[in-house]
Each structure stands twice: as C-alpha cells, then as structure tokens.
Amino acid sequence: MNPITFAIFITSLFWLNLSDAKIGYFWHITDLHYDPFHNSPEFHRGCKHRGNNDHNHRNGRHRDHTCDSSWLLIQSAVSFMAERHPDTLEFVLWTGDILSSSMEHLSDEIKMEAVRNVTDLLSRTFSSQFVFPALGHNDPPPSRRLIDMWMQWLPSDALATFETGGYYTIEQSYSKLRIVVLNSVLWAGGAAKTDGPHRGRAQWEWLEHVLSKARRKNEMVYLVAHAGPGVEERHNAGSSSAAGGGELTPTANSNLVRIIKAFSDVIAGQFYGHRHTDTFRLMYNEGRPVSWALLAPSITPRGAGSTSNPGLRLYKFDTNNGKVLDYTQFYLDVTNKKGEVHWAVEYNLTQYYNLREITAVSLDNLSKKIRNYNDRTFLNKYLLALHVRHSTDVSNCDATCVHVHYCAITHAEFHEFRACVRNPASALASRAPHLSSAILLYAIVLLLCSRKH
C-alpha cells in the first residue's frame, strides 16, 4: 500500500467512525446568581452603594455589570434555550450558584423560594429532559426540601447520596455515558471549618469507587461540579508574583487532580462554572496531556475581580461514548445601545480555534498558540472570549499577563502554577513537544511504506 492510499484509508476510517456517532446535545448553564429583589424598593445594597440609580435599574433591566441577575435576565436566558431546543437535546447541566451573594444573610425560607422559582422555570421549559444540578457555595445545603424540588430529575439512588453529601451519579441505561456530579463546596476552604471534612472524605471515597466501577463496566464519565481544580486567573493575570489559589483547598485540589489523572482513561470530559469566565484547564501525566476541563461563563454579568457578559453553552456530543464534538457559545450584550434583550451566537469552538477535534492533545496545542505573544491571533481570540466580549480591547494583556494565563491553563496544581509563573523557561521544559500514539503510528507506517517503493 503506497503512502497516499494509506492516508486515504486512515481518513476514511475517521469519517466512518464519525458517521457511526449518535449525535446528541446538552446545555450547560451556570452561576445565575438570581437576585429576587432586583426590581424592588429593597433593591440590595450590593448594587445600590455602587450608585446604580439609572432608569435601567429602576425599571428592572439588567444593563449593569455590578449587579446580579434579575428575573427578566433569567427568563430571557431560559426562553432562548427553549427556542434553540434541538430535537436531540438529552439533558441540561446546571452547575450551581443559583442565588445572589446578596442573599447570604436572608432567611432560609426566602432562599428556598428563590431556588424553587428557578427550578419551576427550568421544569416547565424542559419538561421532557432531565436537569442535573450541582451545588455552589451560594446555594442552600442538601436538604429534604431540595430533594422534593429535584426528585423529578434524579433517581432514588442519586437522591440518597445527594441527601447525605450533595453529590450523585447518573447511570444511563441506553448508553455508556455516566454523569458524576460533585459537591465542590465540601472541598472548599469554608467547609473545613464546619462539618465539611467528614463529608468531604466520604465524597473522595465515593468518587474513586464510582470511577472504578465505570472502568470495570467500560463506561465513560462526565465530571460535573460548580468549581473544578486549578487557580483563579482572574486575580492573578496581572502579576508575575501571582499567589495561585482557587476555590478548593490546596489539599483537595491536589487530590482531585491526582484522581483525574488516575482515571483519565474513563473521564470523557469535565464541566465546571464558578469563574464567571470562558476558559479551559488541562491535566498532564509525565508531560503528556491526559484530561481537559471546559469552564462555562456565568449568566450573571457581575463578577469578582472581573466582569463578563452573560453566556450560555450548547454542547454537541456522541451519545454512544460521551465524546464531546463541539459546542456553540451564546451571549447577551447587556450594554447594547438599544437596550434590547438579544441573545446571539458568540462563537463555535472548533471553528473559532480551528480545532479538528476536542481532546487533551488538541487543547494543549491550542494553549501553546495562545501563549505565542509574537503572533497574537489565538491570544486575542481567547481574551475576547474570556469575558464573553465584555471588552473588545485585548491589547492591555502584556507578556507577563499572557504567561500567567498560560500557566493557569496548563498547571492545575497550585504549587506548579506558582513555579510556572516564576520561571517561564521551566514551563516550556515541562511541556515538551509530544506526539499522540495514533499520529506516531501513522508516521511509522508511512515511513515503512515509502521504503518499499
């Protein structure tokens, strides 16, 4: 077989495999931060003290990046999701922080009523689909009342672990895809001061058990949580002495990274929120990229240390094995001059970044293109998407800023991130060029074939 014939054969196998895929879709929404008092005389002081007294606020609009989501904003997002509802929509991932941080000191009754309002809206909109919620740090803890609200979506075995720890797994009878929803609050700093350590340890044991079971059953897994591993680049991107911390404790962060590496063969994807930004994370094993995480932007336009436009994400995937094929990002420009509530396509992942597929290797290659300060093509694309087109000026990210972003993407361990930021040369050395086994085999066969002729 000559090299050209072999190349055609390999390409045919690729497209044949793609044609066998059963295409499905799922939405990922996160960080609604619903403020039920957005349009009331008691409009919360978190916005009032910032001097937001323009007519847009007095009329309940949402054209300010210093305030959390109004009911109008949430309704518009869910209504748009319903309009763009694919026939093959499988489920919705809803990764926490349902409530505004301004509600922290309000009664449990008021908080639960707000959660119920959002739950009812999603239930009416997606009456034929399952919604899989994950708890954020601004949300009520697991309780009977939450179970009563969400039992329409979760089977009894999932409800059992949700009641005790806020985490659960969904085993789908019609496919080899398993969804594992974690309670990242148990691994956050605040939980260590309460009863978090005990339930956090139980979640570790449960997670490794579930992943081991998935491996035995040849299942692929989606890891879903409010907050995932890695640092908060929002607070670190401007400094070469970045401290490098995240939502999880250092111990929990390291433990989660270790487990992800150990089970990278069964983890088909990781999906998180919390950061209010559009970014991604990579995990490596001995310098080889083995797992990826995609972080979705928030519904709320308000951020901590940064602001973004509201964003929604629709994933396309192979329902047979969970392989993520693409996603389309939608956004709302809350400061558009006409004051319209108009959701639009922001970008399509594979087209935007010129990716053939979504894998740890392809995203690792993308991270290197983003880091290339001399050719800012991909860097500017990344920075524009990072805050969901809140600002179109991406020129103020200097070489240090670029390097910190690269370190955040490629170093999920806090101490490795700090070392990367301090020593750019070591960052390059630790990510030496590599070839996937498939590409390497392809090259060897081509070489052998060429020698025969």
From TrEMBL:
It comes from the Eukaryota. Residues 289-423 form the Sphingomyelin phosphodiesterase C-terminal domain. InterPro entries: ASM_C, Metallo-depent_PP-like. Residues 1-21 form the signal peptide. Pfam families: ASMase_C (PF19272). One of its GO terms (cellular component) is extracellular space. The keyword Hydrolase applies. The keyword Hydrolase applies. Keywords: Glycoprotein, Hydrolase, Signal. One of its GO terms (molecular function) is phosphoric diester hydrolase activity. Gene3D superfamilies: 3.60.21.10. This is Sphingomyelin phosphodiesterase C-terminal domain-containing protein.
